Amino acid sequence: MTDECHRGRDAESTRATVIDAAGRLFAERGFAATSMRDISAASGISHPLIHHHFGSKEDLYVAVKRHMVEGYARRFPVAARATNRPLSVRAEMRRLMTYLSENEVMFRLCAWARLEGDIKVWPGEPDLLDTLRSRIKAAQRRHLIRTDLDPATLSLMILGLIYFWVENRAHFAERFKGTIDDDSFLRQAIALVEQGVKPCANSPKPAAEA
Known about the structure:
With 210 residues, this protein is mostly helical.
């Protein structure tokens, strides 16, 4: 292996180590309360070397956000590339549940961003939503999804249902004492998106009220 390859691998490893440490610290303390020296101590990478790879703390923060958003494509590369494949609501919602459930740090980072008044679009976010919107359009062309629904709005609704549950499930598990869990929520969320709330012909009749 050439020296150039070694240097490339070393640089890639260094960036990954810094991004991981910075992500954890930003999620724990917020952007303002995290210093580059904190990140250096947590990552074991020297302060000057972090500056060499990322520049400012703001640039590192952007890199952390991008890494988290692009994690979906790394986790589900086939789905992320299938921009012209009709969307399967069921499969997509299951993928979103899986990915978001595996990324608690991202939820904490999102919460800090809101608290600190950061409303900027995260790098990579438009690509993720554009792919979802394109797949909804492909499904509409195949008459698999209603054409009166706006693809962008439906994308946000699908993402929002799963995001809200994963972010708040610990609270609601306590509130409803275990009667709602990931499987039951996901099953009913899929049914809601696929079928709406109007009763179908074979829906069971509600029990008579006392």
